[in-house]
Specification:
single chain, 358 residues, alpha+beta, Rossmann fold, OB fold (Dihydrolipoamide Acetyltransferase, E2P), 2 domains, 6-stranded mixed beta sheet, 4-stranded antiparallel beta sheet, 25% helix
């Protein structure tokens, strides 16, 4: 297991980058704790896999260093870093049995035969492949082959880190929840440093202790699921986490008052005069439809999704989303919307601004 340090790290796929726009991975300086489970979350093309491949040693960064437990491994191979990596699509030895595939990393390290048998049996039970251990991999489904890849990544107990690059893409949806749960149990049992790349917020939030949200080659926030939900540090985090995502409302803010198209809202914290692109960010869960309090809205439609209702409305020509209780009735008289002041965040040029407590 290892603490992983990203020191002044950046990467460009251009041989002579001339500016920030040429960098797929913009400068990063972070310490990732030994034994934590992290999820790298972001949209396709944001730099997640680039960062993962730099950590694993498959890619050498354009600048900066990677340190494991304060030892510089920037020029070290994947083998020397003692990394196990599972890729998006199955990588298996078709001519080998499932048992031999799972045992391969341990046999390469000349582990004791009894230990190999014990670990293979345990991992096979965990991923549901006990009945196919003596079958060749060639005839198995893509689901089963990816389980073999997962098992081979997990079979070693001595790795510095386990890296997963969207490993459940080809897994049947009914199996995804079970495998995520098993990965989390493995982490709790052995305490490996784990990094799990995904664009799926459900996968990230259910797997990780800490979620690393990436946008446009940057890490915009590292936090627990609760921190990402309640206090997004960047508007992208608010948009990407949650369903629907956070409402963003252009406003003028000064002191404890925000003005939206001339209408005033009270805020829980006080702010100085703000310049730039100023927006209020409020989750749909903290917005309420009312008959006589708040800003004027026009309800366009109500979507009943079972556990709650999602109200789509227009606020001064822009869409706003409201989450209402399943038992709450939505009447034609509800033409205004109110916000919980304690749950309203203020953003300047997409970044969270901390006000002063009243």
């Amino acid at each position: 297991m290892a603490k992983i340090t990203l020191d002044n790290l950046a990467h460009s796929y251009f041989p002579n980058p001339t500016g920030e726009a040429d960098f797929a991975l913009k400068e990063l300086n972070h310490d990732w704790a030994d034994g934590e489970a992290y999820a790298l979350l972001g949209a396709s093309g944001c730099g997640k896999t680039t960062l993962l491949n730099i950590i694993s040693g498959l890619l050498t960064p354009s600048q900066g260093r990677i340190l494991f437990n304060d030892m510089d491994v920037t020029a070290s191979s994947t083998t020397d870093r003692n990394i196990a990596q599972v890729f998006q699509f199955p990588v298996v030895y078709d001519t080998m049995t499932v048992r031999d595939n799972l045992a391969f990393p341990l046999r390469n390290r000349e582990a004791d035969a009894g230990y190999i048998a014990m670990r293979v049996q345990g991992i096979a039970a965990m991923i549901g492949l006990e009945e196919t251990l003596d079958r060749r991999a060639r005839g198995l489904t893509a689901d089963a082959k990816q389980k073999i890849s997962l098992g081979r990544g997990m079979v070693r107990e001595d790795v510095n880190a386990l890296l997963f690059d969207e490993p459940l893409t080809v897994i049947d949806p009914h199996m995804k929840w079970e495998l995520r749960t098993q990965l989390k149990q493995l982490h709790q049992q052995f305490g490996h440093t784990m990094i799990y790349v995904t664009h799926d917020q459900t996968e990230a939030l259910t797997f990780a202790n800490k979620v690393v949200v990436m946008h446009d080659g940057r890490v915009v926030q590292i936090g627990t699921p609760q921190e990402l939900f309640e206090r997004p540090e960047h508007t992208f985090v608010g948009y990407f986490i949650g369903s629907p995502g956070m409402n963003l409302i252009p406003a003028d803010v000064e002191g404890k008052v925000a003005k939206v198209h001339g209408a005033s809202l009270s805020l829980a914290r006080a702010y100085g005069a703000l310049s730039g692109k100023v927006e209020l960010g409020v989750r749909p869960e903290f917005v309420s439809l009312t008959e006589d309090v708040g800003l004027p809205v026009k309800v366009r439609r109500v979507e009943d999704v079972g556990r709650h209702k999602i109200v789509r409305a227009d606020l001064f020509g822009s869409e706003i989303n409201i989450v209402a209780g399943e038992d709450q009735s939505i009447s034609p008289d509800m033409t205004r919307v109110a916000f919980d002041p304690d749950r309203v965040n203020v953003y300047v040029d997409d970044w969270l601004t901390e006000g002063e407590a009243a």
